[in-house]
Write a structure and sequence with these properties.
With 565 residues, the protein is mainly α. The two termini are 46 Å apart.
C-alpha cells in the first residue's frame, strides 16, 4: 500500500506562471534587477532570484513583481518573506486566492497546520481550489491530540464548504491515523454517498482496511478498482504493493509488468519488478532488467550490486567483481561490495590482486586506511588462510595500533592459533580504549570461560558487558555458561533459558541442554537438543555435548538414534 502522500496525488510545487511579466514604469536599475533575477531563476539560482525579486517587490510595490517574488520565495521556503509578500499581494488584489494558497501550502510544509488552515479557507472563499488530502498526507506524524484539533477545524470547514470532496477524505484519513476506525469509515462513506466512487475513494478504503489488519479485504477492494479503472497507474501500483505485503509476489509481478507495458521507461517500477524477480530467484528475468536499469543510469548502485550477485551465481566472477567495483562510496552497499570483492579474489587465490585492491582504496581515502586491511584479513580468515591474515593484521596494527576493529580481528584470529595471551592482550587494549565496549568485555569473558579456569574473572567481565547491553542474548548466554562452570546451576539454567528464548541458536541450545542434563533434567535436555537439531542438523556444538554426556552416562541409544536419522 502507498502512504497517503501517494493517495493524495498532490504536488505542492507551485509552477512559475507562464504568462510574461509586464513591467511597470521602472528605473533602469530596477529593470536590470528584474531581468537579472529572472535569468537567475531560469538558470536555477533560486535563492539569488528570490532575493532580487523580494527587494524589488518591496521597493516598487508592483503587483506583477510581487507575484513573481512570491513564487520564487515560496520555492525556497522562506515563510517570513512569503507572509509579507502575500499581505502586499492581497492588499492590491483582495480577490486573488493565489497568495493565500502559496502561504497556506508553505505553512503546511512546515507543519504549522493551524496557521495554514485560515489561508486555505480563504482560498475556498475566494473561489480557488484546495486539495485537503495534501494536509492529511502529512499529519500521520502528529500526536492524536494534535490531530484532533485539526480534525475539528476541518469539520467546521465542511459546514462552510460542503461541496469540497477532499475535506471529507482528509478527515477520514486523519481519523484513520488516530486509529479511530469507525469515524474514519463513516466520513469516507459520507464522501462516497455525496460524490460517488472514484480511484481516490477506493485507495482510501483499501488503506483503512489494511490499517485495520484486513489485508485480504483491502486486496479485494483494489482488485475491483483496477477492473473498473484498468489504466489508472496509482491504483494498479497500490495493488502491486499490497500484493507484495501479502507475500503474493508472482501476482504483484504481473501488476508491475502491466504498468511497464504501458510505461516502458518507468524505471522505478522496473526496479520494483527486479526485486520481486530476485526474491523469487528468477535470475534470468532479473539480469536483463538490471542491465536496462544500468543503461538508463537509474539506481546504479543497487542495480550493479544485484547484478554482481547474479553473475556470481553463474560463476562469471570477473564481471561480478567489476560490477561490485562500480558501486560508489556514497552507497550503503559500498563496504559490503568491497568485502565481496576481497572474498572472491581470495577464493580464487589471487592474493596479490586482493592486496593491491585493498591498498588502492586505503591510499585513496584515509578513512578507509584501517578498514580495508580488516576486510582483507576477514576474507583470508574465512578461507582459512590464517597465516596470511595474521601478516595483514600485524602490518596494519603497526600503522594503527589503537584501531579497535583491527585489534578485534586479530583477537579472533589469535583464537584460531590457540594464542590466549594475544587474545587477552588485544581485547584488554580495546577495553582500555573503550571501557564500555560490551563486545570486547563479553568476548574476553567467554574466551576465558572456554580456554582457562579463571571463571570468576570471566564472570566479572561478562557482568560488565551485560550492564552495558542488558538484553543481548549472546552476553546472557555467556553469563549462563560461566555460571555453569562455577556450579551455579539454577542461575545458569535461568539465564540460558532466557538467552535461548531471545535467540534460539544451536550453541545456546548446547549450553542449555548440558546445564539441564547435569542438573538431572535429562528429558528436557533431550527435547532442547533434538528440537534445535531440526533447525541445525549439522551442529557440532549439540552433537558433541550429546555424545560426551550420554556416553559418560552409559545411556547412548536415544541420542545415537537421533543423530543417525
Amino acid at each position: 500500500m502507498p502512504d497517503s502522500t501517494a493517495i493524495a496525488e498532490a504536488d505542492l510545487a507551485i509552477s512559475v506562471l507562464e504568462q510574461p511579466i509586464e513591467y511597470g514604469n521602472f528605473t533602469q536599475e530596477q529593470l536590470e534587477m528584474a531581468l537579472l533575477s529572472e535569468l537567475g531563476g531560469m538558470r536555477g539560482y533560486l535563492p539569488q532570484a528570490a532575493e532580487g525579486y523580494y527587494e524589488l517587490a518591496l521597493e516598487t510595490g508592483d503587483i506583477n513583481i510581487i507575484r513573481r517574488a512570491s513564487e520564487f520565495v515560496s520555492a525556497i521556503g522562506n515563510t517570513g518573506a512569503l507572509n509579507l509578500l502575500a499581505q502586499m499581494w492581497s492588499s492590491k488584489d483582495p480577490l486573488a486566492p493565489e497568495p493565500h494558497l502559496l502561504l497556506g501550502y508553505q505553512l503546511m510544509e512546515e507543519g504549522l497546520y493551524g496557521q495554514a488552515l485560515p489561508h486555505l479557507d480563504a482560498v475556498m472563499e475566494l473561489g480557488g481550489q484546495v486539495d485537503f488530502t495534501v494536509m492529511s498526507a502529512r499529519t500521520y506524524t502528529l500526536e492524536n491530540r494534535q490531530r484532533e484539533v485539526i480534525i475539528g477545524q476541518l469539520q467546521n470547514m465542511v459546514s462552510r464548504h460542503p461541496n469540497e470532496p477532499t475535506l471529507y477524505f482528509a478527515i477520514a484519513q486523519m481519523f484513520d491515523q488516530s486509529s479511530m476506525n469507525e469515524q474514519a469509515s463513516e466520513w469516507l462513506q459520507i464522501g462516497r454517498e455525496k460524490f460517488g466512487d472514484s480511484p481516490r475513494t477506493f485507495l482510501i478504503e483499501a488503506q483503512l482496511l489494511q490499517n485495520m489488519g484486513r489485508a485480504e479485504q483491502a486486496e479485494s477492494v483494489l482488485i475491483s478498482a483496477v477492473q473498473q479503472y484498468p489504466d489508472h497507474r496509482l491504483l494498479r501500483y497500490s495493488l502491486a504493493q499490497l500484493l507484495v505485503q501479502n507475500n503474493k509476489l508472482a501476482d504483484a509481478a504481473l501488476e508491475f509488468e502491466y504498468i511497464m507495458q504501458r510505461e516502458p521507461r518507468d524505471f522505478e517500477t522496473l526496479y520494483s519488478l527486479v526485486l520481486i524477480n530476485l526474491e523469487l530467484e528468477e535470475y534470468t528475468k532479473a539480469e536483463p532488467r538490471l542491465r536496462e536499469l544500468i543503461g538508463a543510469g537509474h539506481r546504479l548502485n543497487e542495480a550493479n550490486y544485484y547484478l554482481a550477485i547474479i553473475l556470481e551465481d553463474r560463476n562469471a566472477i570477473d564481471e561480478a567483481i567489476n560490477r561490485y567495483q562500480q558501486i560508489n562510496r556514497q552507497s550503503n552497499a559500498y563496504l559490503t561490495s568491497q568485502r565481496q570483492i576481497l572474498r572472491l579474489l581470495v577464493q580464487l587465490e589471487r592474493f596479490q590482486e586482493a592486496k593491491n585492491w585493498s591498498q588502492q582504496l586505503a591510499d585513496s581515502d584515509s578513512r578507509l586506511a584501517p578498514v580495508m586491511p580488516t576486510l582483507e584479513a576477514e576474507a583470508l580468515m574465512n578461507a582459512d588462510h590464517n597465516e596470511r591474515a595474521r601478516e595483514v593484521l600485524d602490518q596494519a596494527l603497526g600503522n594503527f595500533p589503537d584501531n579497535i576493529d583491527l585489534l578485534f580481528a586479530r583477537a579472533l584470529l589469535a583464537e584460531r592459533f590457540d594464542d590466549m595471551a594475544l587474545v587477552e592482550q588485544d581485547l584488554r587494549r580495546i577495553i582500555d580504549l573503550d571501557p564500555q565496549n560490551a563486545r570486547a568485555l563479553n568476548h574476553l569473558g567467554y574466551a576465558m570461560t572456554l580456554r582457562t579456569d579463571r571463571y570468576q574473572e570471566a564472570m566479572n567481565l561478562i557482568s560488565q558487558a551485560l550492564a552495558v547491553t542488558p538484553d543481548d542474548p549472546a552476553i546472557i548466554d555467556s553469563l549462563g555458561w560461566v555460571q555453569y562452570k562455577l556450579g551455579m546451576l539454577d542461575e545458569s539454567i535461568s539465564n540460558l533459558r532466557k538467552a535461548f528464548e531471545l535467540f534460539p541458536d544451536h550453541e545456546v541450545a548446547a549450553h542449555l541442554g548440558e546445564a539441564l542434563w547435569v542438573n538431572g533434567q535429562q528429558e528436557e535436555a533431550l527435547q532442547v537438543w533434538e528440537s534445535s537439531l531440526e533447525s541445525f542438523p549439522d551442529s557440532e556444538f549439540i552433537t558433541e555435548a550429546m555424545q560426551r554426556l550420554m556416553s559418560a552416562n552409559g545411556d547412548t541409544p536415544r541420542p545415537e538414534q537421533r543423530l543417525s536419522s
